[in-house]
């Protein structure tokens, strides 16, 4: 392979025609020109897989009927041709078997969240990773936004003082009525056999929890939860409220809802400290607000002024040219591509300014989901945040 064609080579499991998130992953991975999609097992239907590959201009010989076939045949290709990592964009119940098979075949893995179907599977996945020399990344997308990264660094630098309160909300309205029979995205999310023990908290609440920990630098230690299905006939939650306690004693509130009529993708977070507060809204991602008691609030805009290095390196366009969801996704893929390039080079790896969320975040995310379900079922008010044996 020519030295001028040394893109990181990606395969994909899931994301065939009719799927939503696979197209998002592909678009994000391509933005910076560092990653090339070379193969896929895009669907359980080989016909759909071939049609998807044709639309994406992929060699039909590398559009596989199953992910097992893909891993076997890709591993047999010359090193300079085979895929280097696989993007897993299937429904939740397939995340673990696909990731496990990829790791055991020697491929790096970038997985959509939640990482697995259960916490036990996430723990088992870490055990598999410990036995194989490969990378694992998780697309907690919102950690890729430049101003989220800026907020994290400002908080770490002490600009807010001691953190005292965290308020995170993720509200949507798209499941406020029973979905039609052709709504593929709703059907599997509301099916406990494919989504797991939670719909709303597993789909979006876990993002808010991850964002709260990522930005604050704290960990959730206790919670009090109330999850429920609001729409009649559902087996798992479509709405939930959670009280939080953090590792430094700070208190928190997390709201997640998919039945909040009129809400689109209203993820927002406010973090308060003894010196200042900070606020960010996903639907206005290029604005960060710093708030004070003794002086006017500060409006921070992407691309205007100076930023911490990781945030600055995550920006692509001049001020006033909005960057959003795809670019945040792309930052995670860029981080992961750099990790793949630096793989087995300790010095190069140490120089990386940021890395994609990994297996530790995967385990904490699954633990958050199951702890919320356990807390809802519990008789006591507060439950400890446990990392194993939750349900």
Automatic annotation (TrEMBL):
Entry keyword Membrane: no
Lineage: superkingdom: Bacteria
All residue ranges annotated as the Gfo/Idh/MocA-like oxidoreductase N-terminal domain in the record: 9-138
Database matches in SUPFAM superfamilies: Glyceraldehyde-3-phosphate dehydrogenase-like, C-terminal domain (SSF55347), NAD(P)-binding Rossmann-fold domains (SSF51735)
Record's keyword terms, sorted: Signal
InterPro entries assigned to the protein according to its UniProt record, in alphabetical order: Gfo/Idh/MocA-like_OxRdtase_N (IPR000683), Gfo/Idh/MocA_oxidoreduct (IPR051317), GFO_IDH_MocA-like_dom (IPR055170), NAD(P)-bd_dom_sf (IPR036291)
Domain GFO/IDH/MocA-like oxidoreductase: 148-279
Protein name: Gfo/Idh/MocA family protein
Organism for this UniProt entry: Glaciecola siphonariae
């Amino acid at each position: 392979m020519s030295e001028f064609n040394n893109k990181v080579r990606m395969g994909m499991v899931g994301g065939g025609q009719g799927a939503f998130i696979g197209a998002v992953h592909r678009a994000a991975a391509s933005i910076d020109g560092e990653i090339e999609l070379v193969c896929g097992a895009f669907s359980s239907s080989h016909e759909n897989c071939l049609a998807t590959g044709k639309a994406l201009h992929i060699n039909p010989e590398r559009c596989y009927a199953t992910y097992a076939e893909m891993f076997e045949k890709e591993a047999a290709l010359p090193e300079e041709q085979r895929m280097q990592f696989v993007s897993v964009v299937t429904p939740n119940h397939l995340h673990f078997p696909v990731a496990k098979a990829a790791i055991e075949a020697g491929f790096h893995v970038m997985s959509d969240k939640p990482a697995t179907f259960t916490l036990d599977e996430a723990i088992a996945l870490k055990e598999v990773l410990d036995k194989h020399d490969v990378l694992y990344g998780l697309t907690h997308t919102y950690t890729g936004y430049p101003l989220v990264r800026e907020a994290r660094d400002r908080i770490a630098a002490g600009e807010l003082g001691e953190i005292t309160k965290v308020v995170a909300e993720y509200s949507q309205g798209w499941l406020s009525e029973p979905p039609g029979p052709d709504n593929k995205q709703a059907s599997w999310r509301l099916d406990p056999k494919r989504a797991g023990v939670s719909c709303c908290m597993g789909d979006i609440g876990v993002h808010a929890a991850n964002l709260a920990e990522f930005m604050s630098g704290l960990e959730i230690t206790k919670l009090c939860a109330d999850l429920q299905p609001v729409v009649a006939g559902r087996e798992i939650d479509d709405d939930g409220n959670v009280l939080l306690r953090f590792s430094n004693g700070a208190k928190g509130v997390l709201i997640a809802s998919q039945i909040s009529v009129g809400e689109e993708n209203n993820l927002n977070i406010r973090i308060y400290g003894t010196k200042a507060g900070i606020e960010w809204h996903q639907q206005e991602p290029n604005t960060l607000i710093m708030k004070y008691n003794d002086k006017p609030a500060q409006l921070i805009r992407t691309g205007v002024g100076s930023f911490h290095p990781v945030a600055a390196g995550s920006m692509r366009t001049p001020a006033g040219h909005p960057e959003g969801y795809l670019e945040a996704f792309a930052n995670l893929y860029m981080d992961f591509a750099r990790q793949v390039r630096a793989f087995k080079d300790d010095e190069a790896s140490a120089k990386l300014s940021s890395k994609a969320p990994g297996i530790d975040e995967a385990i904490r995310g699954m633990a958050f989901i199951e702890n919320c379900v356990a807390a809802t079922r519990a008789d006591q008010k507060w439950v400890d945040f446990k990392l194993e044996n939750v349900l």
